[in-house]
Q: What sequence folds into this?
């Protein structure tokens, strides 16, 4: 097992964070806010650019977009070809944003300011030891290197939940960028065309509010979980959209230990060996009771037939789940201690544990992409996991490359083999 390691704090913002998305291999978006009450706490998005200075990860603020009185509780990003869209949950509605990407001169960005969408002039801020990432050569250079800048423009807004206390709880966009799924307090899953956001199908999926949704990598399947304890797999393609009254393809049946009642909390699909049509399904489940003695569960499923392949118990309830884009690693965040863990996807072996990464429960996780768009962040890590919480902090947790044998042991083994070989040759007089 790799030694425990946490790069820790990347950036601190001035509002609670509820959702986290990657825009490119180097750019991450965080969102949240203080709500509609007049607390003085802002609502909106911030985008950071990630880099590695040879010792640690660094984040630099690229832009900020405030959303007025509307807190952003959930969001999804679709970045295909030259168009990037952001779908954000704001109360009972889903607000669509167009994200315009442009290249700007690096030296100009360092010297000056840029204009945000709301018309305010904001100077780009350096965060958490960014100065370590800028050498004297960079400071004195007149380089014309180009860097990415973003502009967020509001577009259409649609109501996606119609319960008594309507609230969109989750939004997901299919990998091909053609479908959007939303879920809220009314227990219904709604499928929309994207980016037009025209309603294609309403699924009477659950009797209580939706907790999470996810599309399969091949776009044909959708998983939903809710507070009624159910977890179901649905047809999400053209055939599924046409079958208005069709039931679930598969209903997941958990096998909790000791007969304890568990509720599903989060769900994510993950690739197998980087193949689009071969994938796994991961879920988190928490005990119905709030006793600290009960353990949370990480579960690995075969989505083709709904069989439970593996279960790992964790010492506390779980709150956040992420799978890296190549399917190799799974990230988990906890409810009470604010801890973060990384697991190997196929075996659910824990390879990194960061105790107390946040002072409160973890609200979102995303891996620094292994594939994605644009050049990756060069680092000495096998994996890097980003985490957020309502403690206003964006953190990173990196996993060193694992070695099957310590270097000192390998050296001793080589010496031993050479000694045995020499002894054997001497014995036979060779």
A:
């Amino acid at each position: 097992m790799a030694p425990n390691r946490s790069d820790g704090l990347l950036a601190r913002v001035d509002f609670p964070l509820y959702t986290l998305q990657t825009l490119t291999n180097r750019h991450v978006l965080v969102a949240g806010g203080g709500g509609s009450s007049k607390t003085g706490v802002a609502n909106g998005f911030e985008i950071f650019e990630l880099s590695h200075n040879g010792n640690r990860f660094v984040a630099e603020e690229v832009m900020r977009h405030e959303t007025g009185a509307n807190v952003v509780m959930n969001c999804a990003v679709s970045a295909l070809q030259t168009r990037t869209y952001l779908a954000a949950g704001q109360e009972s509605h889903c607000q669509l944003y167009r994200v315009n990407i442009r290249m700007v001169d690096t030296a100009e960005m360092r010297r000056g300011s840029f204009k945000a969408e709301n018309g305010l002039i904001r100077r780009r801020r350096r965060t958490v030891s960014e100065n370590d990432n800028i050498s004297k050569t960079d400071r004195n250079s007149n380089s014309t290197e180009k860097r990415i800048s973003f502009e967020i423009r509001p577009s259409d807004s649609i109501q996606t939940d119609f319960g008594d206390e309507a609230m969109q709880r989750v939004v997901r966009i299919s990998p091909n960028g053609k479908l959007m799924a939303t879920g809220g307090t009314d227990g219904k899953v709604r499928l929309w065309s994207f980016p037009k956001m025209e309603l294609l199908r309403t699924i009477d999926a659950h009797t209580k509010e939706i907790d999470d949704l996810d599309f399969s990598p091949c776009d044909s399947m959708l998983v939903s979980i809710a507070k009624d304890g159910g977890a179901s797999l649905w047809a999400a393609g053209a055939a599924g959209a046409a079958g208005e009254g069709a039931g679930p393809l598969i209903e997941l049946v958990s096998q909790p230990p000791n007969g304890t009642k568990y509720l599903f909390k989060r769900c994510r699909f993950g690739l197998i060996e980087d193949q689009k049509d071969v994938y796994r399904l991961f879920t988190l489940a928490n005990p119905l009771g709030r006793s600290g003695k009960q353990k949370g569960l990480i579960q690995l499923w075969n989505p083709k037939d709904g069989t439970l392949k593996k279960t790992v118990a964790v010492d506390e309830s779980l709150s956040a789940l992420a799978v890296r884009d190549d399917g190799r690693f799974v990230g988990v965040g906890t409810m009470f201690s604010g801890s973060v863990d990384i697991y190997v996807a196929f075996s659910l072996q824990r390879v990194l544990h960061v105790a107390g990464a946040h002072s409160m429960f973890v609200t979102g996780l995303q891996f620094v992409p292994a594939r994605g768009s644009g050049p990756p962040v060069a680092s000495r890590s096998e994996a890097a996991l980003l985490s957020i919480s309502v403690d206003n902090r964006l953190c990173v947790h990196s996993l060193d490359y694992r070695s099957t044998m310590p270097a000192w042991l390998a050296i001793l083994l080589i010496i031993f083999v050479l000694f045995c070989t020499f002894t054997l040759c001497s014995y036979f007089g060779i």
